[in-house]
Write a structure and sequence with these properties.
heterodimer, A: 59 residues, mainly alpha, 3 helices, B: 84 residues
Chain lengths: 59, 84
């Protein structure tokens, strides 16, 4: 069960990061590109961090 | 190949690749956005590589990179602004 949760969190973090990077690449103006930096830092980072925390335990 | 290493490879190709592309083309402000994206993705890659290697002491590298990239972004933003 724990492995499934870790894999789902890892996959979600990877998906958000790759989608944001591709989105930033597709956009043409600076401000539109800057919008796509936010999910990487505020969503993908915590998702991957949570996956690492669950994998390694709290002790 | 464990899932952490696979994730790091995916981020290198799908995250760092577009960031390098943005950072290498266009005007300086666009390149700064690419640099910011590249810094954020590199931190995540280093986290996953640390887990893949099983060495928690390697975590100091992404920790320092976070602080350095934050200060670097501020410096580049200041340098790209209009001169008084």
């Amino acid at each position: 069960m724990r492995n499934v949760v870790v894999d789902v969190l890892l996959a979600a973090g990877l998906l958000v990061t790759v989608a944001s990077a591709v989105g930033a690449l597709v956009m043409r103006t600076v401000y539109n590109r800057m919008h796509f930096l936010t999910p990487v830092t505020s969503l993908a980072g915590p998702l991957l961090g949570l996956a690492l925390a669950i994998e390694n335990g709290w002790a | 190949m464990n899932p952490w290493l696979l994730g790091a490879v995916v981020l290198m190709a799908g995250g760092l690749g577009p960031a390098l592309w943005i950072g290498a083309r266009g005007d300086p402000v666009n390149r700064l956005v690419g640099l910011e994206l590249g810094s954020a993705v590199t931190v995540l890659i280093l986290l996953l590589l640390s887990q893949a290697a099983g060495q928690s002491s390697y975590l100091i590298v992404p920790l320092v990179l976070v602080l350095a990239s934050f200060a670097g972004t501020l410096v580049f933003t200041r340098l790209l602004g209009p001169r008084p």
